[in-house]
Write a structure and sequence with these properties.
Strand content: 15-25%
Largest sheet: 7 strands, mixed
Number of domains: 2
CATH superfamily of the largest domain: Fructose-1,6-Bisphosphatase, subunit A, domain 1
CATH topology of the largest domain: Fructose-1,6-Bisphosphatase, Chain A, domain 1
Order of helices and strands: HHEHEHEEEEHEHEHEEEEEH
Shape: globular
Number of strands: 13
CATH architecture of the largest domain: 2-Layer Sandwich
Helix content: 25-40%
CATH class of the largest domain: Alpha Beta
Structural class: alpha+beta
Length: 292
């Protein structure tokens, strides 16, 4: 896969965060046991912010003229963030979550956490199309590099999705950001905040054949939508429960109201990611429409 200078810079930035991120998660996990979740959360927040700064510094050296939509420091942007935000006429946007999956990991509900980025090209004044994406799993040293119709490992080999076991085919989908979505009560779906899973975890579990699909609602574009786009490039069916197709079109930039910056969420309703001809996929779709 041929990488642009921007994509190479994102990779360098993520790689530079590896040691500190792994150490930060180890420290947070230990603190969760001894001092409680709030202390652990503060530790990871500091790691999150530093990761974002490290990645943006690398990006700025090769692409100072792009704009960004990122997770951290929206209320008090750094000087570097403001430089990117000032690029009102930019043709390219970087979407970035510098640390995804911290809650589930510190709660011992997952062994996966990651960093995820998407590159977006402007197609209209306020809209853009995702054209590439990168996921880095620091603890495992794994990368997913995605472009339209293709997802590769770091060594350039294609990512092949493992087939789930017959038992897994009968399991209901996992969920992301649906704990406030009252329509999802078909079986044993995860629907409470304490059981929230991350998009980086869902992606690697899809690849490994550990799940057959997942549900999402109101996720942020900078991480959740990027991950869903990667799943689509892996060959999974991606569709809103309303029947609308997932297009990879996202808002080009954040929402700014009265000087306050907010990262936009996908407000189009429940989105379903699964295999083609999967009974669960159609079951969720019918249930959602029928219970509106």
């Amino acid at each position: 896969m041929k990488l642009s200078e921007l994509e190479k810079a994102i990779i360098r930035g993520m790689e530079a965060t590896k040691q500190a991120t792994v150490a930060g998660f180890g420290k947070a996990k230990a603190m969760s046991k001894s001092s409680g979740d709030n202390v652990a959360s503060r530790t990871l927040s500091a790691t999150d912010i530093q990761n974002q700064l490290t990645i943006l510094e690398e990006v700025h050296m090769v692409a100072p003229d792009i704009t960004i939509s990122v997770e951290e420091c929206l209320e008090t942007p750094t000087q570097l963030q403001n430089k990117f935000y000032a690029n009102m006429d930019a043709r390219v946007m970087l979407m970035l979550d510098p640390l995804d999956g911290s809650h589930a990991y510190t709660q011992k509900k997952s062994t996966w956490y990651g960093e995820i980025a998407g590159v977006v090209e402007r197609v209209a004044n306020d809209k853009g199309m995702i054209t590439s994406a990168i996921v880095f799993y620091p603890h495992h040293g794994l990368w997913l590099l995605a472009k339209p119709g293709s997802v590769e490992w770091f060594d350039g080999t294609s990512v092949l999705v493992c087939e789930p076991s017959p038992c897994q085919l009968n399991q209901p989908y996992s969920t992301i950001f649906v704990y406030d979505h009252t329509r999802l009560r078909l079986n044993q779906e995860v629907t409470i905040r304490a059981e929230l899973y991350s998009i980086t975890e869902m992606l690697i579990k899809l690849v490994r054949g550990e799940i057959t699909g997942f549900l999402s609602a109101r996720g942020h574009f900078y991480d959740n939508t990027v991950g869903i786009w990667i799943a689509q490039q892996l060959g999974f069916k991606v569709e809103y429960a309303s029947g609308e197709q997932f297009s990879g079109i996202v808002p080009f930039g954040d929402i700014v109201r009265e000087g306050k910056r907010v990262a936009p969420r996908d407000e189009q309703g429940l989105i379903i990611v699964g295999k083609y001809n999967d009974a669960w996929f159609e079951r969720y779709k019918r249930a959602y429409i029928g219970q509106k």
